[in-house]
Design goal:
The structure holds 2 protein chains of 2 kinds. Chain A contains 7 helices and no strands. Chain A is mainly alpha-helical. Chain A is elongated. By secondary structure, chain B is mainly alpha-helical. Chain B has one domain. The chains are: A mainly alpha, B mainly alpha. Chains A and B meet through helix 3, helix 4 and helix 7 of A and helix 1, helix 2, helix 5 and helix 6 of B.
Chain lengths: 148, 154
């Protein structure tokens, strides 16, 4: 279930739901409203998922096995990297969307901030000593920091 | 030995503990979290294996979601077995696969509803909205379900 929930962060959901057509018609007021509503819906869903992750961590962390920690931390790390690194570098259209959104301090920024807090929180709670994982975390987090 | 509180679907939460390739892929390409979760669920993906028509798939997911939400609201819901639980979760999981707009005709509440059902399974309780402001707290305290979902951690 935890992994199912990462689907809501998929880049396809951050694209306007009228697809390519939307790009040419985005100045039409009614479509702007649709875009804003769509973005707000996705934001709420992502925040709801992050709330569940936080609650899961706070409520059950005492009972996590090493395997559970590994899974949970990898999931969050993969998700954060997907959002903050891959999303912004590999998809120019989304990159523009994110850049504009960041300037406006809107929903996407809120999601990024929450995602970082959740991931770092889980990492700190986990007390992971695995050298490989630390190496990956170090590499990944450097990319997150350098995002323009 | 610590006795954990009910921790539903623990093996599903764990996924495959041997699965580390998403971080250290043989190909040298880093797999993404979404692809990782795809692989975790695909082995028993009944819906994708048997139903190819996207509209039919959406209808099935919506029906399952609506039924469970109605049962939860009435306080009648419990899982018959662990298999039943997995089956339901798997069907609902398909509802979160993007693009979410495929549910636009069915209403936007579906995805939030699916997440609430997940919350109910994971934590044993969830607040469901009834009407505009009224919220109902639903708990599962069926001992059979608790037995099925409980876990001992050594």
């Amino acid at each position: 279930m935890l992994s199912h929930m990462t689907f809501v962060f998929d880049r396809k959901n951050f694209s306007p739901n009228v697809g390519e057509l939307f790009k040419n018609l985005r100045d039409i007021p009614s479509l702007k409203i649709v875009e804003a509503k769509h973005r707000e819906d996705i934001r709420k869903l992502c925040i709801q998922v992050l709330d569940i992750y936080d609650k899961f961590l706070n409520k059950y962390h005492k009972y996590f096995t090493k395997a559970t920690w590994d899974f949970f931390v990898k999931l969050l790390m993969g998700l954060t990297n997907y959002q903050l690194e891959v999303l912004s570098r590999l998809c120019p259209l989304i990159n523009v969307f994110i850049t504009n959104s960041t300037k406006q301090n809107d929903s996407v920024t809120v999601i990024f901030n929450r995602l970082l807090v959740t991931t770092f929180n889980a990492w700190i709670y986990s007390g992971i000593t695995d050298v490989k994982l630390w190496g990956v975390f170090s590499d990944y987090s450097r990319q997150w920091m350098n995002r323009e | 030995m610590l006795v954990a509180p009910p921790l539903p679907l623990h093996d599903c939460l764990l996924g495959s503990s041997k699965e580390t390739r998403f971080l250290y892929p043989e190909t040298g390409i880093t797999h993404l979290a979404c692809q990782f979760s795809n692989r975790l669920t695909k082995d028993a993906n009944f819906l994708n294996d048997t139903v190819t028509n996207p509209d039919v798939k959406v209808n099935i997911i919506f029906d399952v979601y609506s039924s469970i939400t109605a049962l939860l609201t009435n306080g009648d819901f419990s899982f018959k077995s662990k298999g039943h639980l997995k089956f339901v979760i798997e069907i609902l999981g398909n509802g979160l696969i993007p693009p979410l707009s495929k549910f636009s005709k069915k209403g936007q509440k579906v995805h939030r509803g699916i997440l609430r059902i997940y919350e109910y399974v994971i934590f044993g309780s969830v607040e469901l909205s009834q009407g505009v402001e009224k919220k109902v707290l639903v708990r599962h305290d069926d001992p059979k379900v608790a037995d099925l979902l409980s876990l001992r951690v050594s």
